[in-house]
Design goal:
The structure holds three protein chains of three kinds. Chain B is α+β, with helices and mostly antiparallel strands. Chain B has helices at residues 36-45, 69-76, and strands at 2-7, 14-17, 22-23, 50-60, 63-66. The two termini of chain B are 20 Å apart. A five-stranded parallel β-sheet of chain C has the order 1-2-3-4-5. The A-B interface holds A 26-27, 29, 33, 47, 49-52, 80, 95-99, 341, 412-414, 416, 418, 421, 423-424, 427, 473-475 and B 7, 9-14, 44, 47, 50-51, 67-70, 73-74, 77-81, 84. Chain A: Residues 52-109, 341-392 form the Nitrite/Sulfite reductase ferredoxin-like domain. Chain A: Residues 119-269, 405-541 form the Nitrite/sulphite reductase 4Fe-4S domain.
Chain lengths: 543, 98, 151
């Protein structure tokens, strides 16, 4: 894992003092809310439906047990005993007092954490593959690259007042576990002639105008990556629309210019800026990468032994994945108990996960964009102990990538932008399908719910998506089918008129019944939908 | 009727204008008629409230009920965490929202 | 910025942050500058293309860049483009210039400031001196931390 040096620590400490100063000026009246708002947002502090909300960055989703325990401490001390893990691999606390915010940041800084650029029209937290460093199929660990970009983007003087927010994801496998092409910039690290470089996509995103990012560069070498990103951002900062907030994301600029013209402008800009010495020497990437080396895996092969406990066997099958090192598994801890709140974890659960990471996973945890937690390196012989502890804490739901493993935004229960409540709907769907082996029979089925068109719940990327809207003051839910945020990326399409909360659960049952009736060997729901097209699904819903 | 609401600047708590000050309880909110904007400006200027705005509401026997579900959820708390609402002991409190 | 009033008046830039004498000539619009030969001062609106100045950069003593709203960040790129092209004269940020933006502006090459509303000099001093380390090379003299790490 990355460790701060004196410079990193000094920068984060200075940020704490800067924010303390800004909060004091707000409380004294020296700053109006209009002036303070972008300053607090750039430190992840929102004013939500019930209170201030603080979003803490978990860079590329990686943290250690000490950092995880700090999150539990903050939940317990400054909030109401829980936190909410988000689709950008961060965590949010829902009940923060403005006057406490500087002290919380000071506490976070003691464990090399912060809330820098977790909101605002700037470059946000860099996201990555939650299996990084553990996946067998990666060409390299993407996190050193993500850290390099994190540092470059932190307080970037030119790109702090962009037309709109800017999200970057970095992966290093053909398998996409990070919805890479649905980011403003998506980077896939690839190997060419024995060297690693960046395949760069730009202009993807969800929101009210979802788009899949086109390729902008097929191979940018490591020593030019930051100047290339500088060029990408400068073209956007200069020419992105500022007259209409709904058209201000880079995807609109690239769509309007065309990918070829955007690429031409970026290449022209890159020629100008790469001569300026913006790129750190490769020794800097090497310095960072040295901190992401493999932990001391044991070479003894320890076989996977389901011990006769059916619940353990089901969890082993569903929630653990292949590891690059023999004898180890990647464990995904589901934060989606049937009937629970997707992504929420209590302070006690957070502490327990920290303990398990320390004891069984070389002190490492990951947050996934699907709002789960990963223990990346668990020896097979420890799996039963891990599972037993999780079970006792209500964290052993065996539903990874099943229909009850729902991504849901906070929705109208917490969010001031929402039009409808996402969480109660997620609870109803999970309850409907979560018993009697129904979800296991359906197999992989990614269901994603957003409470408004901003799409924080990734509904466009759901095999089944649900979008909550406000119909004359009443919550209404539109159903979408056929999206994917993986390497087979696609955007879901709306089936037709919307439903009530119960109505949309019934409609989901109809489409999954049709899938069960019509699926062919080995087909997932998404595959059957792609083969059959929308029409038969529409017919069973509305016919 | 019209209610004036906002958040406490320091704590972030949802608050309602009572005619003489701010309360966390919508039941204590008063009809501000046409005077809401002036009160909002003065109170925001004095930093006694943050981001105040006016909402439509209906007078009921239990007090004012905001017209929009968003403001009813603000008034009560998250419907999915009854324990964190202003009426944790009332299992039926959530039905007031819907 | 010894004197609050100095920053109250648009066009009367902050002496403390200046590195050369303030320009006296009134700044003309980009369009006017491009159509006349003898202007030494130009004002860029937020959407103007700073690169249009590059062929005649040598004759310019002052470029004033407008910030119609502190949220409009185009002026940061305009400033860097001019500094990258070698412009050595006065680069002035004018408009909705707030104390929390000034450090970024300095890093992008601005060396004078004409904010519409007064800036508290104490807050400005803290703001400008706060960060002892920066992550990226800008238009200022600050060395990025990767340079300090690797020499």
């Amino acid at each position: 894992m990355y460790r701060y040096d004196q410079y990193d620590q000094a920068i984060v400490d200075a940020r704490v003092e800067e924010f303390r100063d800004q909060v004091a000026r707000r409380l004294s009246g020296a700053l109006t809310e209009d002036q303070f708002k972008p300053l607090r947002l750039m430190n992840g502090l929102y004013l939500q439906l019930h209170a201030y909300m603080l979003r803490v960055a978990v860079p590329y989703g990686t943290l250690d047990s000490r950092q995880m325990r700090m999150l539990g401490h903050i939940a317990r001390t400054y909030d109401r005993g829980y936190g909410h893990f988000t689709t950008r691999q961060n965590i949010q606390f829902n009940w923060i007092k403005l006057e406490d915010a500087p002290e919380i940041l000071a506490e976070l800084a003691t464990v090399e954490m912060h809330a820098i650029q977790t909101s605002g029209n700037c470059i946000r937290n860099i996201s990555s593959d939650q299996f990084a460093g553990a996946a067998a199929d990666e060409v390299t660990d993407p996190r050193p690259w993500a850290e390099l970009i994190r540092q470059w983007s932190t307080f970037h003087p030119e790109f702090t007042y962009l037309p709109r927010k800017f999200k970057i994801a970095v992966i290093a496998s053909d398998t996409d576990r990070a919805a890479m092409r649905l980011h403003d910039i998506g980077i896939q690290l690839v190997k060419r002639d024995g060297r690693i470089g960046a395949r760069v996509f730009a202009g993807g995103g969800m929101g009210r105008t979802p788009m899949i990012a086109p390729e902008i560069a097929e191979f940018v070498p490591a020593e030019e990556l930051l100047s290339f990103l500088e060029a990408c951002l400068r073209v956007y900062n200069r020419h992105g629309r500022r007259d209409n907030i709904y058209k201000a994301r880079i995807k609109i600029l690239i769509h309007d210019l065309g990918a070829d013209e955007y690429r031409r402008q970026v290449e022209e800009e890159h020629v100008a800026v790469k001569a300026l010495g913006l790129d750190p020497p490769l020794a800097e990437l090497d310095r960072i990468a040295a901190m992401f080396g493999d932990p001391p895996f044991e070479s003894v092969e320890s076989p996977l032994v389901p011990n006769g406990d059916a619940a353990f066997a089901a969890w082993l099958d569903q929630n653990t994945s292949a590891h690059k090192h023999p004898g180890y598994r990647v464990v995904t801890i589901s934060l989606k108990p049937i009937g629970g709140i997707p992504g929420d974890a209590s302070a006690d659960q957070i502490d327990l996960m920290a303990d398990l990471a320390e004891r069984y996973s070389f002190d490492e945890l990951r947050v996934t964009h699907a709002q789960n937690i990963v223990l990346p390196h668990v020896a097979a012989r420890d799996l039963f102990a891990v599972w037993s502890a999780l079970r006792d804490a209500g964290l052993a739901e065996a539903n990874l990538d099943l229909i009850s493993d729902i991504i849901a935004c906070p929705g109208l229960d917490y969010c001031s932008l929402a039009n409808a409540r996402s969480i109660p709907l997620a609870q109803k769907i999970a309850t409907r399908f979560g018993a009697n082996g129904r979800q296991q029979e359906l197999g992989e089925l990614k269901l994603k719910i957003s409470g408004c068109i901003n799409a924080c719940g990734h509904h466009h990327a759901g095999h089944i998506g649900v979008l909550g809207v406000d119909r004359k003051g009443v919550e209404n839910f539109q159903l979408l089918l056929g999206g994917s945020g993986a390497e087979d990326v696609s955007l879901a399409r709306i089936t037709g008129p919307g439903f009530s909360e119960d109505g949309v659960v019934d409609a989901i049952e109809k489409v999954t019944d049709l899938y069960l009736a019509r699926r062919e060997d080995g087909e997932r729901f998404l595959d059957t939908y792609r083969r059959l097209g929308m029409e038969p699904f529409k017919e069973v819903i509305y016919g | 009727m019209k209610l004036l609401t906002g958040n406490d600047l320091v704590s972030g708590d949802v608050v309602w204008w009572t005619g003489s000050g701010w309360s966390r309880h919508v039941a204590e909110a008063t009809d501000v008629g046409d005077g809401g904007e002036a009160i909002a400006r003065a109170e925001e200027g004095a930093r006694r409230v943050n981001v105040p705005y006016l909402v439509d509401a209906v007078a009921t026997a239990d007090g004012p009920r905001p017209a929009h579900i968003k403001d009813r959820i603000r008034a009560l708390g998250p419907t999915v965490r009854p324990d964190l609402t202003l009426k944790p002991a009332d299992p039926a409190a959530g039905s007031w929202v819907i | 910025m010894a004197d609050r009033d100095a920053t109250d008046v648009a066009g009367d830039p902050s002496p403390a942050l200046r590195q050369d004498a303030a320009g006296e000539q009134p700044a003309v619009t980009l369009e006017a500058f491009l159509s006349q030969d003898d202007a030494h001062a130009v004002r860029l609106e937020a959407g103007d293309d700073a690169r249009a100045l590059l062929p005649r950069l040598a004759q310019l003593k002052l470029v004033e860049i407008s910030f119609p709203s502190f949220r409009d960040g185009r002026g940061y790129s305009a400033a860097r483009i001019l500094r990258e092209a070698g412009f050595m004269g006065e680069l002035r940020a004018q408009g909705d210039v707030l104390v929390d933006q000034v450090p970024h502006m300095i890093r992008c090459g601005f060396n004078s400031f004409a904010p519409e509303a007064a800036i508290d000099p104490e807050v400005l001093k803290r703001s400008v001196e706060r960060y002892a380390a920066v992550y990226q090379r800008g238009a200022d003299a600050a060395e990025p931390v990767w340079r300090r790490r690797h020499g």
